[in-house]
Amino acid sequence: MAVITDALCPFCGCTCDDLTIVTEGNKIIEAKHACKLGAAKIMGHHRIKAPMMRTDKNGNFKEVSYEEAINETARILVNSKRPLLYGWASALCEVHKKGILLAEEVGGIIDNTASVCHGPSTLAVHEKGLPTSTLGQIKNRADVVVFWGSNPVQAHPRHMGRYSVFAKGFFSDKGRRGRKIIVADVRKTETANIADEYIQVQQGSDYLVISALRAILSGHADVVPDAVGGVSKEQLVKLVDILKAAKFGAVFFGMGLTQSQGRYKNIDNAISLIFELNSFTKYVIMPMRGHYNVTGFGQVCSWETGFASAVDFSRGIPYYNPGETAANDLLLRKEADAAMIIAGDAGAHFPANSVRHLAKIPVVQIDPYWNPTTEVANVVIPTAICGIEVEGTAYRMDGVSLRYRKMIEPTHPTDMEVLERITERVREIRGD
Ligand code: SF4
Fold first, then answer.
1. Which of residues 381 and 45 earns the better pLDDT score?
2. Which GO terms describe its biological process (predicted)?
3. Does 76 have pLDDT greater than 80?
């Protein structure tokens, strides 16, 4: 039996780094301190055993060798005019680097899962910047914490305990008793149930509510009507008083803000509110990133191409224009004629029309797990699990990079090996 202490969890953007992993032989038998979500991934489920291809006319899978699956993937990519390489969020930065090289090699479009979650946040940050901090600063200092359109109880179960609500820090030694918690959401979530103040925003009205808060904050409460977006003026004024009274405030926002009406303009407006609150006291804002290394893809893609996601290499140079070059733009226009989905699940998270188009084109899935994308895939290549069987770097939701150690030995080739072999094969087929 072996015990690994201070291990990192490869599931959500909290990237908790205090797990104790107990192994026996080459098997994990316990993941102490992990939440249910993290433990389910670490303990293992629904692994794909061997590469598969749909070879018969009924479309059934047949097990094939890695060699055959890699050859077929390279052939699909070389024959495609608009290949889409999508996913990446549940893989390490070392995988992203290889993937961007392959996208450039085949003149494809590379995009990650932020496309359907925090992509709009990136656009807002382009325009406004991001007054932010580390999670450590929030743990040690925050006395007012706002969750807007995010529900950490369900999606980031240890966020509140480790960083934002219950955690005791250097200047916040009272933990929960020393913090005001505010939740703004369209429905009363489990997180709202433990808040001091719950703001029930009418669906699609976040932009209006944030604008009303900004008006009140800047001394123009007189122009605000009796209710805005389902929130009474009285409650809005009370909320501004709480926000202004903070010594250090933090706003965490989720998909309830990024994917509701207004999208990136909601984030733009929220960032403006934070800038204005900084005229009174100290405030920071942070996206609640979902997958454990979705932030890392943005980092690697930015330093490799100059853009954080949705990069089109068809011109021979990186070109970026979300609305035109994001994964769903291509699929909804039926422009992508092949797709490689890696470390992300387009089948589960894309709109129905995008998935319908995926079902009509050749799709390669590279992933340790069987998931809805497998159902539309023509070629499936199982890989080792990043962060459990493969070491490497990932970026926490606050942009802090952390090094994952291997917990057990891999039983499958790594994503890096598979991408390298596909790239080599692409070069061979083209006769480079
Ligand atoms: S909160 Fe997230 S990172 Fe932490 S143990 Fe749970 S799933 Fe893993």
1. 381
2. methanogenesis; respiratory electron transport chain
3. yes
Task: Identify the residue whose C-alpha is closest to ligand 1 atom 5.
Answer: 34
Ligand 1 pocket check for 9: Cβ under 6 Å: yes
Kindly list the structural domains of the chain, giving each domain's residue range(s) and its CATH number in brackets, ordered by start. 2-41 (no CATH), 47-117+292-430 (3.40.50.740), 119-287 (3.40.228.10)
- Residue 402 CB burial class (10 angstroms; 0-12, 13-18, ≥19): middle
From the number of C-beta atoms within 10 Å of its C-beta (0-12, 13-18, 19+), residue 226 rates as exposed
* For the CA of 19, the nearest atom of ligand 1: 5
- Say if CB 132 and CB 285 are below 8 A apart: yes
Other beta carbons within 10 angstroms of residue 413's beta carbon come to: 18
Kindly compute the dihedral angle of the four CA atoms of residues 198, 203, 207, 210, in this order, to the nearest 10 degrees. -10
| Model pLDDT, residue 58 | 84
Q: Contact at 8 Å (CB) between 87 and 341?
A: yes
Nearest CA to ligand 1 atom 2: 12
Q: What is the rounded average pLDDT of the residues 22-46?
A: 94
